[in-house]
Amino acid sequence: MLLNVVLLGKYEYGKALEIQYELLGKRQRGEIEDTLILVEHDPVITLGKNAERLNVRATAKQLEESGISIYNTDRGGDVTYHGYGQIAGYPIINLKSKDMGIKNFVRTLEELFIRMLKEKHGIDAGRDEHHAGVWVNDDKIVAIGLAVKHCVTMHGFAFNVSTNLEHFKYIVPCGIRDKGVTSLQKLKGEAFHETDREYGAIIEYFCSLFSYDGHRILNLKEILN
């Protein structure tokens, strides 16, 4: 099976969420194959279905002045931040066709980034037994929050490449008060002006770990029609 890949580039969160729901419905009806959306969002804070509103530390005025909007979502997890320099990935995957449960799916997503960071960047990353995601010591570099609807996944992961880490001060990331966040740029001590070069690595490891024969890049018109 080939994996469909949709590269949205820089895209507003609300519009990307609408596309997720459209593709979710198409995958549930068997009209498309498994699909991975990769996107970079305008600055936005999103709250999971069990999020504590108090984990947003900033005032409405601070958020407005920083150009950061807020969305309530139906994904798992608490509060997180998306922004420029961060790759958000939304897998629209039929778990039944992969013979996977949601826990195994999350573990495989974590393994994807653990291997990629080690093999491509020489960074030792790992898991935290109490919290989903990928960590370098006590700092999270990849957040994971999913929803599953009729065996098909949506929402997904957020990989900090050159993200403005100062914006995370506006929230308690994922509701975890005793840990921090980091980025590829911070860890490597070099500037990452573009996230594009990380897309290929994510697609490569995604296809390998989830056992796809390869991938095809589709634009929105091709996959929505």
Could you explain the architecture of this structure?
The chain has 225 residues and is an alpha/beta fold. The chain is 32% helix and 32% strand. The protein has helices spanning 13-28, 60-66, 95-98, 102-121, 184-188, 196-209, 220-224, and strands at residues 2-11, 35-41, 44-47, 69-72, 79-82, 86-92, 126-128, 131-136, 139-149, 152-160, 180-181, 214-217. Strands 1, 2, 6, 7, 8, 9, 10, 11 and 12 form a 9-stranded mixed sheet that branches. Strands 4-3-5 form a 3-stranded mixed sheet, with no helix packed on it. α4 (102-121) packs across α6.
In total, the number of strands is 12
Q: What is the overall pLDDT average? A: 93
Q: Strand fraction band?
A: 25-35%
Overall morphology: globular
Summarize the structure.
It is built from seven helices and twelve strands. The chain has helices at about 15-30, 60-65, 95-100, 100-120, 185-190, 195-210, 220-225; strands at about 1-10, 35-40, 45, 70, 80, 85-90, 125-130, 130-135, 140-150, 150-160, 180, 215. The protein starts with a strand and ends with a helix.
Explain the layout of strands and helices:
Blueprint lengths: L1 E10 L1 H16 L6 E7 L2 E4 L12 H7 L2 E4 L6 E4 L3 E7 L2 H4 L3 H20 L4 E3 L2 E6 L2 E11 L2 E9 L19 E2 L2 H5 L7 H14 L4 E4 L2 H5 L1
Parallel strand pairs: 1-2, 1-12, 3-4, 9-11
Antiparallel strand pairs: 2-6, 3-5, 6-10, 7-8, 8-9, 9-10
Helix pairs in contact: 4-6
Q: Which structural traits does this protein have?
A:
single chain, 225 residues, alpha/beta, BirA Bifunctional Protein, domain 2, nine-stranded mixed β-sheet, three-stranded mixed β-sheet, 7 helices, 12 strands, globular
